[in-house]
Amino acid sequence: MNYKFRKATTSEIPQIWDILKLAIARRKEEGSDQWQDGYPNPEVILNDIEKNAGFVLTQGDTIIGYSAVIINDEPAYAKIEGEWLTNADFVVIHRIAISENYLGKGLSKKLLAFIEDFALNNNIYSIKADTNFDNIAMLKIFEKQGYTLCGEVYFRGSARKAFEKVLIETKN
User: Lower CB count within 10 Å: N or C terminus of the chain?
Assistant: First the structure.
């Protein structure tokens, strides 16, 4: 399969929002509180794209995944209850979602691999992310992909498990 990872455009917000709406519904079906408070929403996606932080995973012309990828900007991470592995530059991942039609194909891992490449291409060797304590699928993905649980951070009044992966500098 030929997958690409690129910046999203504002014209793609409807497709991205469709993916996120179904991910929000999946979280609810799984009994999770995550994403059940009106967040994320189309305005959040627009904000990501306007800040050059909205990225899509595509197969051909089809958008099959979305993530916000932010460099060095997550105020909640400064107040971690715990300790990060590093204190250098970092990439933050938020709002990972895969299209309903493409679930179970390892695409979250593929998306994370693209984000690791993005970080390395920007000479950044740390990726930080968080998820709800009851997002079992994401917790397992972080564990399998070598992320370390570093503590808890708080968003909109709720504790989230905070993870970091330290990347190895590759010489080309």
Answer: C
H-helix segments, 68-106 = none
Q: Which long-range contacts (CB under 8 A, 24 or more apart) does 17-26 make?
A: 17/41, 17/42, 17/45, 19/63, 19/64, 19/65, 19/66, 19/97, 19/98, 19/99, 19/100, 20/45, 20/66, 20/95, 20/97, 22/97, 22/99, 22/100, 23/97, 23/98, 26/100
Using CA atoms, how far apart are residues 169 and 164, in angstroms rounded to an integer? 16
* pLDDT per residue rounded down to tens, the chain (172 residues): 799 999 999 999 999 999 999 999 998 998 888 888 888 999 999 999 999 999 999 999 999 999 999 999 999 999 999 999 999 999 999 999 999 999 989 999 999 999 999 999 999 999 999 999 988 889 999 999 999 999 999 988 889 999 999 999 776 5
* Stated pTM of the model: 0.92
Helix axes 42-50, 13-29, angle to 10 degrees: 130
